[in-house]
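Progress against Task 2.4 (sequence-to-structure conversion) is shown through the following example record, which the project officer requested during the mid-term review.
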Amino acid sequence: MTSTATPTDRLHGLDALRAGALLLGVVLHASLSFFPQQAWIVADDSRSIGAAVVFFAIHLFRMTAFFLIAGLFAHMMLARRGWAGFARDRLVRIAGPLAAFWLPVMAGIVTALVWNAHASGLIVPGAPPPPPPTYDWTNFPLTHLWFLWVLLLFYAAALLLRAPFAALDRGGGWGRIVDRTTGALVGPWTPVLLAAPLALALWLDPAWIAFFAVPTPDEGLIPDAAALVGFGLAFGLGFLLDRRRDLLDRIAGWSPLFLAMAVLSGVAAWGLAGGPRLTPMVEPTAAKALAAAVMALAVYSSALAAVGLCLRFLSGRSPVRRYLADASYWIYILHLPLVMLAQVWVQDWPGPWWAKLAGVSAGVFAVCLVTYELLVRHSFLGRFLNGRRVPWRRAPQAAAAVPAE
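Structure tokens generated for the chain above:
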């Protein structure tokens, strides 16, 4: 099958998936306070295994799919702008927001932690405060903005690896070999091929908690091996797929199979992980090897299923999806302190967990969307985050150019 897209076409399905991956982070973090056991700083009075199921289903594919798309878009931008333009853009739109928003986000998180400590009776009025934590490069709290730091590492690696390849490939022979190899990698066997190195990395990780699938590198400036392998393979595959856009049609065509693989392996992975059991599998036993293999298969099959399904069903133009895609970056940056504050606020309220989860998620979405519209979309922040500032209203000349019916 050959793709109708060219390298200059906008891939609306992948835009939608990238936005969905970021927006689902709100629901994912909101669900943590409703786990049946203590899994988060805030523990709601209403808890259920259902909240853990919601978290597991989202976490299984979300960031892996995001890094696959990020790799594809990275190669697209690199081809258009060259390495200097690419590096300049990524420094402004990835490193810039990380540097600008980390401190305000951290202040919001600390505020939520202090409020929760008072609400839970952990801080006695008049008692001396606990000593502040000490941080270094091994435990630096990247918070939920860790993905920006990891993206910067992958961008740097892509530039370093591509430079000698491009210098040696003047005639394009190596490029054709790479393209043929990429074509051979993409098929119903793709999740299995990708899962093998990730399963090994998970098996060798003494701190691996199976329920969390690919570990989140949110502490420390050097991500652990399992995160680098899991997300790095997805980024690398996406980077290569931009050279072979026709393979996106192949992924879309196999999406029903990928979805079936994801459901079966995901259910098995849940069972092998012991559900929301939060103790690490320390020893590299046979049971851990099986859990790692099934979990790795579930991670990549679910990510590829999400990519294929979005390419099949969300590739048309949609003003609503485009708006949410533009807003998703701001929403993800802003959401975690708001989620934590909302969790503290509602933790003692009566009501079922699912209603409170929906209320926290909807409330945070509403605040983020309002602030995006009023503070970001039409201001310099819109250019800073998304590369463009949308005017408040259409220019009169453009409106006059529309013919009357």
